[in-house]
Amino acid sequence: MEPGLFITFEGIDGAGKSSHIEALACAFEAQGRCVTRTREPGGTPLAEKLRALLLHDAMDALTEALLVFAARRDHLVQVIEPALARGEVVLCDRFTDATFAYQGAGRGFDRGVLLILEHLAQTGLAQDPDLMREPDATVWFDVPVEVAAQRLAAARAPDRFEAEPQAFFQRVAQGYAERAALAPQRFVRIDGAQPLAQVQQQVFAALRQRGWLEEAAP
Ligand SMILES: Nc1ncnc2c1ncn2[C@@H]1O[C@H](COP(=O)(O)OP(=O)(O)O)[C@@H](O)[C@H]1O
Ligand SMILES: Cc1cn([C@H]2C[C@H](O)[C@@H](COP(=O)(O)OP(=O)(O)O)O2)c(=O)[nH]c1=O
């Protein structure tokens, strides 16, 4: 059995993450892998309920951080760890980097507390009890805040995060840059301002380079 593969997708709202996950899932399936497509916050019945609260109900910053990690813990226990144990490819739209970017950099919530919560929520689940589960790779769509805002304005009604001002998203983007600098091997930075086809080509190229996708994929 091939080992499981955990790939996450990150970027500010409107960066273009969701547009690429399905194509990648199909490419992995075409080469015989089972794929679990999922998202955060969410991915389980309980975590989807927490998502609805997070996206629409006002709350203080600590409550928000605790709910995000509660949803993540349930998602890891119910979906991500079992799928990885079965040798599947898990493609997850956002994970903990989003918490450091949105709650940490965006809201200004204490990063030290986030590190503690990260460790608590992501440890003790895999075969090795000391392993803190982290993505094998994180595809980060880096786009200027104005570009993402233009795309979103044309695409959908804003939720509680998307309704934040551009200054919030500048901080979030900076938060992603800081997380990427701390884990350069894990992060794959893609210039998400390019046309969709070019972005897709670069995402595929990056995963081919790591030996995870075969040459035939587009
Ligand atoms: N590279 C791109 N160029 C132009 N428009 C894009 C690009 N990527 C995504 N979009 C459009 O921008 C909007 C937001 O994309 P989406 O994939 O939903 O972003 P996210 O999941 O990061 O919030 C959608 O309408 C999508 O069609
Ligand atoms: C995972 C996560 C998401 N979020 C926010 C970012 C997004 O604005 C929102 C939902 O993410 P997302 O699924 O990307 O939104 P959409 O379905 O509208 O594309 O949740 C956090 O604030 N912290 C987190 O840890």
TrEMBL record:
Q: Which UniProt keywords apply?
A: ATP-binding, Kinase, Nucleotide biosynthesis, Nucleotide-binding, Transferase
- Tell me the superkingdom of the source: Bacteria
Query: GO terms for biological process?
Result: dTDP biosynthetic process; dTTP biosynthetic process; dUDP biosynthetic process
Give start and end of each Thymidylate kinase-like domain: 9-203
- Name the Enzyme Commission number(s) assigned to this protein: 2.7.4.9
Q: Name one GO molecular function term.
A: ATP binding
Instruction: Write down the SUPFAM superfamilies for this protein, in alphabetical order.
Output: P-loop containing nucleoside triphosphate hydrolases
Q: Which residues form a coiled coil?
A: none
Catalytic function, reaction form: dTMP + ATP = dTDP + ADP
List positions binding ATP: G11, I12, D13, G14, A15, G16, K17, S18
InterPro entries xrefs: P-loop_NTPase, Thymidylate_kin-like_dom, Thymidylate_kinase
> Pfam families, from UniProt?
Thymidylate_kin
One cellular component term from this protein's GO annotations in UniProt: cytosol
The text of the family note is: Belongs to the thymidylate kinase family.
Query: What PANTHER family would the database entry show?
Result: THYMIDYLATE KINASE, UMP-CMP KINASE 2, MITOCHONDRIAL
Which function does this protein serve? Answer: Phosphorylation of dTMP to form dTDP in both de novo and salvage pathways of dTTP synthesis.
HAMAP family recorded: Thymidylate_kinase (MF_00165)
Annotated protein name in UniProt:
Thymidylate kinase
Q: Which organism is it from?
A: Paenacidovorax caeni
What lineage is this protein's organism placed in? Bacteria, Pseudomonadati, Pseudomonadota, Betaproteobacteria, Burkholderiales
